[in-house]
Amino acid sequence: MRYLEEFRDPGLARRLLDEIHATVTRPWALMEVCGGQTHSIIRHGIDQLLPEQVELIHGPGCPVCVTPLEMIDKALAIAARPEVTFCSFGDMLRVPGTEGDLFRVKGAGGDVRVVYSPLDALEIARRSPDRQVVFFGIGFETTAPANAMTVHQARRLGIGNFSLLVSHVRVPPAIEAIMRSPRCRVQAFLAAGHVCSVMGVEEYPELAGRFGVPIVVTGFEPLDILEGVRRAVRQLERGEHRVENAYPRAVRAEGNPAALRMLAEVFEVTDRAWRGIGTIPGSGWRLADAYREYDAEHRFAVTGLRTLEPAACRSGEVLQGLLKPHECAAFGTVCTPRTPLGATMVSSEGACAAYYLYRRLGPGAAAATDKEATSVG
Predict the structure, then answer these.
(1) Mean pLDDT, the chain, whole residue set
(2) Could you tell me which of 285, 289, 292 has the C-alpha nearest to residue 263?
(3) Closest of 212, 213, 211 to residue 190, by C-alpha
(4) pLDDT at residue 189, as a whole number
(5) Closest CA to 239 of 28, 1, 76
(6) Superfamily of 64-170+255-300 according to CATH
(7) Which of 135, 186, 212, 275 is deepest in the core (most CB within 10 A)?
(8) Which residues span the membrane (predicted)?
């Protein structure tokens, strides 16, 4: 309760910024691993309020953006089948595959539906026993428990015409992959509070110690992010590398035991490809053997796909924190929300979408978007 009272203090933002400015003595690079945090940072100009020595690097924290191209192509192939009702959250419908997206499949007559929960898809399957209903299960540890529970329910209720196209990924292996990269500049991490609310923080101390990086769990509001930056900078200046929980109103060290039990029953850890990054060992989940009959990849045996990323798209470098969106030549010119080359421009959590929406534009992109806005008007 005391924390919440401090959070409501109208002078807290100024004090946090003052302390950060007073603490910094040298350049530091911090990475947020959450697309929601990226949008909050850009929307509120947090990166512009920080000392120039503190750089915020945008990491692979957008679940839509990191869904591999091969999985998008598999979704397109399954959704185009006449016996299939393909269900997904809305932000997946415009993610480009090698050829087209789910909107194009829908326009060609495919039964593609936007749902708000995997349980909505399960209910469609229950009411339509003559259809094969597939839900596109993507995302980090935050969304995985709901998808696991839905498959569990399908088996318990005997709904055999439901399946899950699984593309779940895990944050800690991604942090390790980033730190192992020879091009890595990251010196501290802001960990995603919603992920840790499910998983807890037990996987992070080993990473912090092995790579010598502070990891601060934080939320998504501007004050949450400023508090996370303050703690990370304080550790860096002191030569420390610990895990701190700056989001105690939502995160407990042990996480959510019920969600963890469901994940352990329904899923098993596997290697997973990340779009624009490549395969990261142990970075994803797949359905366990006991639930394999509900695996859409297994059920529809979609194989032999040839995937091809647009040559001009540099979203992989954006996702690795190696490139800011407006540093890409295609950004805001040939790649816009209307004509996206990659998922980072489509998703509501994508870094490119944030830069475009909040006008963090390069000179060429600014001219192109002004022209687009005029034509729309």
Answers:
(1) 91
(2) 285
(3) 213
(4) 98
(5) 28
(6) HypD, alpha/beta domain 2 (3.40.50.11740)
(7) 135
(8) none
Rg (alpha carbons) of the chain, rounded to whole number: 21
Amino acid at 186: V
Collect all residues with Cβ–Cβ distance below 8 Å to 358 and sequence separation of at least 6: 42, 43
Q: Please report the DSSP string for 10-70 in residue order.
A: TTHHHHHHHHHHHH--S-EEEEE--HHHHHHHHHHTHHHHS-TTEEEEE-S--HHHHS-HH
* Pairwise CA distance, residues 89 & 114, whole Å: 5
Q: What percent of the chain stands above pLDDT 70?
A: 93
SS3 334: coil
SS3 250: coil
Helix (H), strand (E), coil (C) string for 310-324: CCCCCHHHHHCCCCC
User: Does 295 have pLDDT greater than 80?
Assistant: yes
Per residue in 259-283, pLDDT tens? 999 999 999 999 999 987 889 999 9
Dig out the tokens for 156 from the structure.
Answer: 């318990």
What are the boundaries of each domain within the chain?
A: 2-62+171-245, 64-170+255-300, 315-376
Fold of 2-62+171-245: Rossmann fold (3.40.50)
pTM for the structure as a whole: 0.90
> Taking the CA of residue 183 as centre, how many other CA atoms within 13 Å lie in the half-sphere pointing to its CB?
6
Confidence of residue 2 (pLDDT cuts 50, 70, 90): very low
- Report the SS3 class of residue 139: strand
How is residue 99 written in tokens? 């050829």
| Residue 343 DSSP code | G
Residue found under tokens 């053997």: 289
